[in-house]
From TrEMBL:
Keywords: Signal. It comes from the Bacteria. The keyword Signal applies. The keyword Signal applies. Residues 20-41, 59-90 are annotated as: Disordered. The lineage of its organism: Bacteria, Pseudomonadati, Pseudomonadota, Alphaproteobacteria, Hyphomicrobiales. Residues 29-38, 67-90 have a biased composition (Basic and acidic residues). This is Carboxylesterase. Residues 1-23 form the signal peptide. It comes from Methylorubrum salsuginis.
Length: 90
């Protein structure tokens, strides 16, 4: 009986931990996907990107994949390169 209770408790704790990771990944993934999709293809891209981002974020959250830490840094580099090219074109 003790072994059964211990097994059930272990299974439930593992399920609750993965569910919380999944929820965090889902929200973050949906936000990123909608932002990137909207920028690339307008409102329709935002809807599709949000759905795909949520699915990707869910899988990443369950597997424990670390979110992209250098994303903002690369975005700033792209903006800087674009600004330099625009300035050189004048």
């Amino acid at each position: 009986m003790k072994r059964l209770v211990l097994t059930c408790a272990l299974a439930l704790s593992a399920a609750s931990l993965s569910a919380s990771a999944q929820a965090q990944g889902t929200i973050r993934g949906a936000e990123r996907g909608a932002e990137d999709g909207n920028r690339a293809a307008g409102p329709v891209g935002g809807v599709v990107g949000g759905a795909v981002g949520a699915a990707t974020g869910t899988v990443g959250g369950v597997l424990g994949v670390d979110p992209d830490a250098r994303r903002e840094e690369r975005r700033e580099e792209r903006i800087e390169r674009r600004t330099v090219r625009e300035r050189d074109a004048r």
